[in-house]
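Two proteins, back to back. First:
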Amino acid sequence: MLKLDRVSKVYRVGTFGGKELHAVSDVSFEVEKGQVVSLIGESGSGKSTIGKMILRLISATSGAIYFEGTDIAKLDGPALKEYYRRVQGVFQDPFSSYNPIFKADRIFSMVHDEF
C-alpha cells in the first residue's frame, strides 16, 4: 500500500530564494494493492511534483509518504533498491497524450471501453 500523509512541497524561488512557491499543499491519499489511480488537474497543479516525491526524485517539505507502512524518506541501501524495483514511474509524453479538447468523461469512457 502507498500512503501520502499531509504531504507538502515548497520551492524557494526568486533571486535569492526569498519567495516561496507552494507546489503541493497538505495532500493525503492511499492506494491499495491492485488499485489504479490517475492524478488529474490543471497544468501547474502539482501532479508531477507528487509523482516525483513518490519516486523519491525530490523530497517532501513536510508530511510523509509510506510504502507498505515504511516512510520512504528513511529507506536506504538494499531497502531503497527494493523500493525502486517495485515502484516505477511512467513519465508523461505530451506528444502521445489525448487531444486536450476531449472532455474527461469521454477520455475515461475510451479507456473503459478498451479495458
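And the second protein:
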Amino acid sequence: MSCETALYHLRSLVEEKARSRWCVCIISLDVAGAFDNVWWPSVLYLLAKAKCPENIYDVVVSYLSERYVIFENKALHLKYKINRGCPQGSCSGPLFWNLIADDALNLQLPQNCKLQAYADDLVVWAKDKSSLEQQGSHALEQLRAWGVRHKLKFNQSKTSVLPITHMRKLKMTDPPRIAMGNSTVEVVEEMKYLGVLWDHTMSFHRHLKAVRQKTDYLTHRLSIIAAKLYNRKPSLLKRIYEGAIEPYILYGHGAWAHRMKFKSFTEKLVVIQRRPLLAIARTYRIPHMHCK
C-alpha cells in the first residue's frame, strides 16, 4: 500500500463514519525506537508461525546468532551480547519490522476500531462519546499488551487523539478521554500523519498553509543559490519546479483532493504556486505602476 492509498483509505473511512453521524476519532501511535527495538526471538517465532521455508529460517537464525556490541580503549574492554534491533536502511530491517507490525494488524480489536496498515494509526467510532472512550481505551490496552509481548513500548508523549468535529458529534471543548495504561492520551486539534497535517474539522487548510510556507522557503533558497543560472536559463527553475516543488505541493492528495470542489480550498492551492511561478516567468510580484 502506498502512502497516498493509505491516506485515501483513512480519509474515506473517517468521512463515511462522520457522515453516518458516528462519533469518530483518530489515534496516532508512536512505537519508541521501533526499528532499534525489534526483538529477535519475536522475529524467529513469527517466521516459524508463518511457515517460513526451513532453509531461509536457518539463514535468519544464523544471521541473528552470536552478535555483540564491543567497546574497547586502552583502559576498558566491554562486550555485550545483543538480541534486538535492525538497522534502518538494511535489506532485512523492513522485513523484520513488518513481521512484528503484521502481528498487531491481526489483533482482534473491539468492534468499530480500525488499525491502519502502517500500524501507527487507529480509527475508532461509536454512537456516543462514552462508548467511544470505552472502545478506544480497550483497543489501546490490547495494543499495549501486544507491545509487552514483543518488548516494545509506546511513546506516550507522541501518542495523541484527534476528535473529528466535522459533523459536530464531538466538540473540542468537551473531547473524549481515552486512556492508555495509567495515563490519559493527549487530545490535539491537529496531527501529522504520513506527511499530511490533519485537523479536527477535516478542512486541511492548515496543511495547505504549512505547504505554502515550505514552498516559499524552498523557492527563495533555490533562487539565491542558483541566481546566476536562473538569470540565463529560467527554464532550469521550471525543471526543478516540475520535478521537485510541484510533487511536494501535490503530495497527500489522497487525503485532501476531495476538497478541490470548494473554491476557497482551490484558491489556497493556487496561491501556493504563485511564488515559484513568478520566479520562473521572471515577472513582478505586483503590477508596475505604469501598466494599464
